[in-house]
Amino acid sequence: MDKVIVATQNISERLESKKYYGWYLLSIKPNAYILAEDNLARQGFGVFSPKHNSTKKKGARFVNHLQPLFPGYLFAEVSKSSPEVKVLNYTRGVNKIISFTDRYYPLKNNLVEKLRLHCDANDVFSHEFCFKLGDRVKIEHGPFTSFFGKIISSSDYLAEILEKVPVLAIPCSLGSPEDMEEGLGGGRQGWWGSVLPAVWSYMLAARSRGLGTAWTTLHLRYANRVGEQLGIPETVTQLACIPTAYYTGDDFRPGARKPAEDVTYWNHWKKTEI
Q1: What is the pTM of this model?
Q2: For residues 207 and 227, what is the distance between their CA atoms, to the nearest angstrom?
Q3: Residue 8 belongs to what H/E stretch?
């Protein structure tokens, strides 16, 4: 009878410990990410520390570097092959297990698995995987809480609000690109090469005065109708449309793009992988 009781207790203990298998959210001590990750992995815990690319200004240029997606936190997995859950609290680099009771329970609803679907093999999170064009979204925080919206491209959004922009600057040039095909004009390349610096100067001047601008050619399919409305002669070519207005965001910031050293090559051509 004693042996049966012992066996029952062992089974009960195993069933009880199985409840604690899964992923836990850990608070990490300051500047101790690598220390915590190494010690957790060395003990046999699974480790998931999602990161994201962040752009910061360094001197006169912008550089990309990886930062924790959730600063100060990472995820650790308790399994049959790892120590018990309470060992997490005593791991070097770990501050504590995040819990709202005096007992520890793993995260629910496959949260970590869902996060991993949006990360590459190096646990780098990509916002591109979160939404796709046409997705409906509900705003959870801020002045538009509970409003619904739809994910659209920036050009589609611009087309929708173009009529509300207070100033639409249309750069024009006399003649047409074909006029430069002969002689030393450089053809179309020379044509645009003479136009772009002037437009850039306008956009930079607007920027210095707190105005936002964008280069778009959305209206060119209706260039003839626009020309009629504005009295632009047929001998003049409309080149673009530059919406100009005070911006509504918190601040200007650089767009997400690859570092210059990843897309420039010396003395030879190479196609950059997007």
Answers
A1: 0.46
A2: 28
A3: helix 2-18
